[in-house]
Amino acid sequence: MILLSPIGTLGRAVLQTLASVGRVALFALSTLTHMLRPPFYGREFGLALLNIGWLSLPVVGLTAIFTGGALALQIYAGGARFNAEAVVPQIVAIGMVRELGPVLVGLMIAARVTSSIAAEIATMKVTEQIDALVTLSTNPMKYLVAPRVLAALIVVPLLVAVGDVIGIAGGYAVATGSLGFNPATYLKNTVDFLEALDIVSSLVKGCAFGFIAALMGCWFGMNSGRGAQGVGRATKGSVEAAAVLILAANFLLTGAFFSL
Amino acid sequence: MIDLSSVTKSFGTNAVLRGVDLTIDSGTSMVIIGGSGTGKSVLLKCILGLVTPDAGTITLDGQDVTTQDRDAFLARFGMLFQGGALFDSLPVWQNVAFRLLRGSLKRPAAEARAIAIEKLRRVGLKPEVADLFPAELSGGMQKRVGLARAIAAEPEIIFFDEPTTGLDPIMAGVINELIREIVTEMGATAMTITHDMSSVRAIADNVAMLHDGVIKWTGPVDRMDNSGDPYLDQFIHGRAEGPIEAVR
Ligand SMILES: Nc1ncnc2c1ncn2[C@@H]1O[C@H](COP(=O)(O)OP(=O)(O)OP(=O)(O)O)[C@@H](O)[C@H]1O
Ligand SMILES: [Mg+2]
């Protein structure tokens, strides 16, 4: 019995994990069906677009410009060891568009949007506002969850696109400003090197990460425990889950797009 | 008519409801009394389906509440939550008119606003309050906004969870009268939870006392004083000594 108990513990943990994966999957599915069926709450959707998209622009822009700049410096320094300094524009472009743009924007959205969605919905849950919604004949899945997830699904790829461009601009500024690159050649090299697939993969990743970020915020918020502690736990859990899932999804998507 | 039969509900090891049987006739006012933490709020939430009972059946007009169309079912209800449960992202008038601004009862915003202001007036709040946010109101004002929201769409059945807690005596009197009016004039069915014995006498047609997870006593309000039930007697007179242990 004593020997078996660690196996039992492990088994229970695995079962619990599988059960919560199942529940999240069902939640995601129900979110998707609620997106497609009326009633639709336009005002909520508009506010979500504003919050997730427009108001995230500063943080996305700043993250991207510094990362692009640092990337240019690193590639220049690293490339110099092989007499390959000239590849800066190509590597900055591919690095930003394929990986860093989507991942950094995804993580910033997890920090900024997932946390605020989770805290907001969890507070509503704790103060019985979700119950009140139900008694006022309003489905919280439709009123709270669907607009936020749909908005993230639409607007995060756009943020990623903006991040990609600003990141490349950061690299361009550093390369032409202090590394002695010719501006016209830098831009030409960037544009010539990028392929459609790079851009498509970037946007698809943006969709996936936006979906994950908003979904985790909603899931943890709707399943929050009681009291202020419950709200705190929900917020922390949502950001952790969103960040890890975004990185895992990034790995899978990179594999799917580029290892064939 | 709302009918509960052998309704039980536990949270983990905490058996809150242990077989509640209760009938509320249409167009009457039922007041639920009972000690703090005995499960009065949980009972209301069970009827609305916000909490799923472990066992037992709840019927509305003879039909099981779990098999009814949720939207149609909920459209018949209004509920004032114990904590108010106002939407803090919306101004007061949009809280009150929530139902009138979306869904099947949707009407033009100006009309909904006018109704909201009229309902606010009925709970003793001035029109200026309409454009404030819930966080800018006092506790008692929030309670009254919650009340205005519960009655805004003029539902058939209204649940009030402690409508007068946190109100001054005059305002409490106004609210008691309002609830009575809603039942007698609009013919609504009301279920009210209160700890205030003067509210009980002002609002109730019938009284039910919840204790130890069951309805210990139920009957018309005028039989409350000579019920002969030691639990009820101790409760309505607020005595520390009696069958209900005050200090656990
Ligand atoms: N969601 C929940 N999870 C766990 N326990 C709960 C939950 N809701 C209520 N309880 C428990 O059920 C019991 C009854 O709670 P309820 O809110 O119904 O009391 P009440 O009779 O309304 O008390 P009061 O008069 O103080 O409002 C309490 O012990 C409470 O801890
Ligand atoms: Mg209560």
UniProtKB/TrEMBL annotation, chain A:
This is ABC transporter permease. Keywords: Membrane, Transmembrane, Transmembrane helix. One of its GO terms (cellular component) is ATP-binding cassette (ABC) transporter complex. It comes from Thetidibacter halocola. InterPro entries: Permease_MalE. GO terms for molecular function: phospholipid transporter activity. The chain crosses the membrane at residues 12-32, 52-73, 149-179, 199-220, 241-259. PANTHER family: ABC TRANSPORTER PERMEASE PROTEIN-RELATED (PTHR30188), PROTEIN TRIGALACTOSYLDIACYLGLYCEROL 1, CHLOROPLASTIC (PTHR30188:SF4).
Automatic annotation (TrEMBL), chain B:
InterPro entries: AAA+_ATPase, ABC_transporter-like_ATP-bd, ABC_transporter-like_CS, P-loop_NTPase. Pfam families: ABC_tran. Residues 2-237 form the ABC transporter domain. It comes from the Bacteria. SMART domains: AAA. The keyword Cytoplasm does not apply. Keywords: ATP-binding, Nucleotide-binding, Transport. SUPFAM superfamilies: P-loop containing nucleoside triphosphate hydrolases (SSF52540). The keyword DNA damage does not apply. GO terms for molecular function: ATP binding; ATP hydrolysis activity. PANTHER family: INTERMEMBRANE PHOSPHOLIPID TRANSPORT SYSTEM ATP-BINDING PROTEIN MLAF, PROTEIN TRIGALACTOSYLDIACYLGLYCEROL 3, CHLOROPLASTIC. This is ATP-binding cassette domain-containing protein. It comes from Thetidibacter halocola.
